[in-house]
Amino acid sequence: MVGCSTEAHLKGLLPDVYGQLHPVETPELIARKRVEFEDELKRVPDQEKICLMQAEEKCPELLTDDFKLMFLRCEVFQAKLAAERYAHYWDKRVEVFGPEKAFEPLTLIGAVRDDKETIRIGIISLMKEKDPEGRSIIFFDVARQDRTKYSRDSLGRVFWYIFHAAIEDENTQRQGVVVLGWPQNAKYSQFDRGLIRIVTTSIKGAIPTRLSALHICQPPMFAAIVIPIIKYFLGEKLRKRISVHSGSQEKLLGRLEKFGLSKDKLPADLGGHILVNRESWVNERLAAGL
């Protein structure tokens, strides 16, 4: 029944530039799917939601209706998939943050309090600009990786924080996230298979975000080894979201333009007009208690 109602709601919709469908949200749809979500959650075996049950006990204030709605939106209002993602989310959150921090708010004064310097390095940044459909844009500057300055665990937590910052925006919850990966100046020694596993498995079945696209921009030669590993971890469905753009900066800009990513939405590193100020972004979020 869940599948039928979801298909009915998607019927007649045209896919977006990335091939994704977006249901028309109505109060009736949301109300019905909230009920289905709770019913499906009850069907998840207790042994598969141990961390979720701990969250219900330790941080019930975080488990709001709006938070749960993110999972429904992520799974295009398929309640069973949303409930399964929600349960797995808490398993993954405990894995990434540890039991000491996992049940704290994901803020710079909460679970991410020890990772502010890792954010400032600027390996992964949330752009203030969005694409024409309102998708958040995340910029991943691979060459900034330097494991002498942070731990893999810290960078994993930062990844979670940046993605959660993106989905604070309701339009991003509905439309998805675009990731711009820029490995042009990276060295093979900066390739971290363990980090790739953390990132890809978090996107694949935990964090409630729709990955609209991963644009890999101007990859170096060794990317021929790395990209298949990324695709393997992402799985059959999400690997289709990867687009690889080789060649000159002019060629890159032309290809990104076809996705609505014009210069006024791109970082200067890619030939765009935006100077990414990580320090300012961190300070603004600290001041806002985020």
Structure description:
With 290 residues, the chain is of the alpha/beta class. It folds into 2 domains: 2-101, no CATH class; 116-287, 3-Layer(aba) Sandwich (Phosphatidylinositol Transfer Protein Sec14p). Helix content is 49%, strand content 10%. It is built from 12 helices and 5 strands. The chain has helices at residues 2-10, 27-43, 50-58, 65-74, 79-101, 116-121, 152-166, 170-175, 193-205, 223-238, 249-257, 278-287, and strands at residues 124-130, 136-141, 177-182, 211-217, 242-245. A 5-stranded mixed β-sheet has the order 1-2-3-4-5. The longest helix is centred in the first third of the chain and has 23 residues, at 79-101. The chain is globular. The N and C termini lie far apart (39 Å). Mean pLDDT is 93; it is low at 1-6. GO terms for molecular function: phosphatidylinositol bisphosphate binding. This is CRAL-TRIO domain-containing protein. Residues 114-278 form the CRAL-TRIO domain. InterPro entries: CRAL-TRIO_dom, CRAL-TRIO_dom_sf. It comes from Phaeodactylum tricornutum (strain CCAP 1055/1).
